[in-house]
Design brief:
With about 400 residues, the chain is an alpha+beta fold. It folds into two domains: about 100 residues, Rieske Iron-sulfur Protein (3-layer Sandwich); about 240 residues, Naphthalene 1,2-dioxygenase Alpha Subunit, Chain A, domain 1, CATH 3.90.380. Helix content is about 15%, strand content about 25%. It has eight helices and 21 strands. Strands 11, 12, 13, 14, 15, 16, 17, 18 and 21 form a nine-stranded antiparallel β-sheet that branches. The longest helix is centred in the C-terminal third of the chain and has 18 residues.
Length: about 400
Amino acid sequence: MTMRTIPIAAASPDTGTAYGRPVPTYRKELTEVGAGTPMGELLRRYWHPVGLASDATGTPRKVRVLGEDLILFRDQAGRAGLLHPHCAHRGASLYYGKVEERGIRCCYHGWLFDVQGHCLEQPCEPGGGGHARERIRQPWYPVQELYGLIWAYMGPPDRKPVLSRYECLESLDAGEMLECNDRSIGGGGPQIIDCNWLQHYENLVDQFHVIVLHSTFSGTQFVDAMALMPQVTWETTELGVKAVSIREMPDGRIFRRVSQAAVPTLRVIPSPRVGKYGRVESLGWILPIDDHHFRIYVVGRVKAPGELAQMRSRQNGKLWEELTEEEHRQSPGDYEAMVSQGRIAHHSEEHLASSDRGVAMLRRYLRRQLEAMERGENPAGTDFDPDAAPVFFDAGNFLEDPPSAA
């Protein structure tokens, strides 16, 4: 029998199509924030801003934090409270409750709870309080007020750290005051941003997107100096990852810009509009609402009320919400870049390059904090000394003379 040889077909011109590609995946241990998840438990070891101080009023307010739905209010004695929404009696929502001198009263049967969840009254029971009233506790979380924000600790009570203070917000220059803002300054979009928190956290140490996204792709979004290609170095610090960008200005001077991503979710970013040189003017905290949404609270030193709001990104003089869909497409910013990665970015599809070194370092840093927690240690940045000095960051925009020639 004669054997026929079947020629091997030439390589198809369609090699490399998307057909048969694996299902994309993401790093769950770094992105998911619900109770019981690795990152969710790590983040619960820290205090987080959950609202402006003015958000806690006599009108119950719904808030969602780390995947949990909660009710924020302020009783008539001035104490802020953060409670689980469903009444411990029959589950009616305290969103419909009435705030009183000693706490919040459920609309269904009138049970009254104080800001620490103690059941104070059960008006339908004999004598206004049943025999088991003292054993009833509405789930609650500790809160504090600082810098015009309401802060909550949602972790294990025996690991509760002190609420950190920060040197750049404690030491004010002449004529300065503190101002807080809840409009997600730095997020480049609406108040609530519909993607995973890590996509913005990593953006903090991605220095090269400033050159393309904010400078050369659709025109200068900040200032001309930010369009100069920098020399960037990154280093891991005790609290996160720091990036130092060096730009040589046309007049020969050196523009040194220092920024940092710090635990738990801090954005230590000097103003990209470089209105003045010096130490960082504001701090921002990324609040993971759940796995698919986040927002940013910012506190900064200002000379006049409203200065923080002026930091919001504008394109052709318009705020994000004022732009048309076509204008968003033509002039994308951080919001478009981050959200278009997906609700949670597909890490399995990435091809990191040398310019992404800071991103890789930040992921490794977070992983080390998870490992420390798994060993029973306290993660970085958790301090238990009420007299601890304010946290210092060396971030800022600095204009320096060139090094002297040898």
